[in-house]
Amino acid sequence: MTVLLLDLQVAARSLAQHSKRSLFLGAAVAAVTAALVLLGGLFGGIRAAMLESGTMLSTGHVNVGGFFKPTSGSSAPLVTGWRKVLEDTKRIVPELQDYTVRTRRFARAISEASSMQLALAGIDVAREPRLEESLQLAAGSLDALTEPNTILIFEDQARRLEVGIGDVLTLAAPTDRGANNTADVRVVAIAKSVGILSAMTAFMPDAGVRKLYQLAPDTTGVIHLFLANERLAGPVAERLRKGLAAAGYRVMDPDPQPYWMKLFAKVNAEDWTGQKLDVTIWEDELAFLAWVLKALGGLGGALLLVLVGIVVIGILNTLAIAIRERTREIGTLRAIGMQRRKVLWLFLLEMTLLGLLGSTAGALAAASISGAVNAARIPVPEAALLFIMQDRWRILVTPGALLSSAAFITAVTALAALYPAFQASRLAPITAIHHVG
Amino acid sequence: MSRPLAALLLLALAAPAGAALDPVALATVISTIDDRQRSTGDWKALCYMESKEEGKTDTVKELIVYRRDADDKQMFLFTKPRSEAGKGYLRVDKNLWMYDPGTGRWERRTERERIGGTDTRRGDLDASRLAEEYDATWEADEKLGAFDVHRILLEVKPGVDVAFPTVRLWVDRSTLNVLKRQEMALSGRLMRTSYYPRWKKVYSESKESDVWYPQEMRFFDEIEQQNSTLILIREIDLRPLDANLFTKAWLESKSR
After folding, report:
1. DSSP per residue over A72-97, as a string?
2. Predicted local distance difference test score (pLDDT) of residue A99
């Protein structure tokens, strides 16, 4: 222990002695660490926003949905006999924290000025605490959704349809038996947009959607399940699939696609009739947005690779210069009996210490920057809002992310120092002592 | 047409304006509308489809419609414009399939499919089945422009699935051609008004009588009132079609 402390002291003094070089290299290490933390934080912020918006708008952590096909050529996103399905789900998933039951269908919304396709979610506002917590209203009131023939739309939709609070929209859609139906609904709330997820979604009282589609009382669209930890969604979904199948339901094979992609591109073409349940997790329902995370991850990864490359080259270069400058010193140390392994260790320790100090400084700087960015509530440009899914930049930095980033960069620094340190340890004492330079 | 049916038809035609059509005469009018348009053999027609939608460029398409009413088979083959050529729909065994030569894939579609993205449904180009699907009520005899017409309300029969549960017809009293048609949603809201200003007939050897068809159909969307579709039917051919025509392979071969 004493030896280690002594070695650390030597390494620290050596760093202090070459302060300019140490500062330059340390700053580079700090910058790369900060970039790593901030990129990870940005990525985490978008993922969190996606989860938050997704679980508010269109998915639970786990979903029990399904399709009903009256004929092999037609299908509807329905769960028949949903009360029994819910009872069985509760039995299979005892750790279930909360659930919501929604009808979900598509309809054409027509105003005096324009029209657009809407994905309707039929809800019972009293059973939707997440909406109350997360939805930011631009106008109107969420409670008004308890009244019949009402609708909540988002700002983008209100702009496109040129409607405001109190205006009437006509919804037109075919029922499952193919008969066209319409409903006139009053806009009672307009919520702030949350990117691509809210581009088409609108909320109506469940009874309104049921009437428009002539749905039976024991039929619904989906049961959203909420868990204490969303990271357990995958294993829970797997257990639920097996459990529901064992309980006698026909369950679809896992397919990481949102229900509407399956409805339009897959289920219609399949040759079966009747009811099949489909268990998905939130990442499946938002799979069409996975490319946003992939693109950001790819860009961030490439940027980090370049930065890490620069730091590695910097370390190699700096250590090569340091070894050249300290050749006589190394020769003297070797001549008075220092082992090669000790020389290697000292150089490695010096660089590891530099890496640790630099990455710690970088991580702390990143934590401060992210705190400042979050506090400043910098608005996201409108064009980026569609995919970033948050109206303010949010960088989600966790203590774990700070520690792992600092540890990773320190390890990279130490590994980069391995070769030059090994070269230094291989110097013959006599050659080193006679070295002029 | 049987002799009693012809006699009832004459009675229906001769009914004075304002006098209610009794149920038997009304049923005769409805079955006559169906019967006059029914083709017992095959059917091939060249059609032009013009679609106007708000915020979109007007589109004109040319397609050939094939029908074999005996087997309830139907096929649409788009021939123009170039970007649409080779696309088509095939209806067999009550399933509607769409083919896109661009992807080489068949997709199953619902009966509600808007053909070629227009306001036209498959049923608009199919045989008339009013008597089979609806219960009729005489509403009034009145004038529609220069024509004396019966105004008839049709309500879907229990257990029958149709796109529009309520339909109102204006039927020319002298010819029994449908001149105007209003289609209502389940909620009772008027959704589409269609006009059939020109009717033509063609002699069918298999039927051994004339087959009537609307040479021009104009569909007006009553919900999105800026949208409308015009269909012109040209070059009707009632000769027997190739036995293998109503197959996926045949439609695919047209774009090779």
Report:
1. TTEEE--EETHHHHHHHHHHH-TT--
2. 95
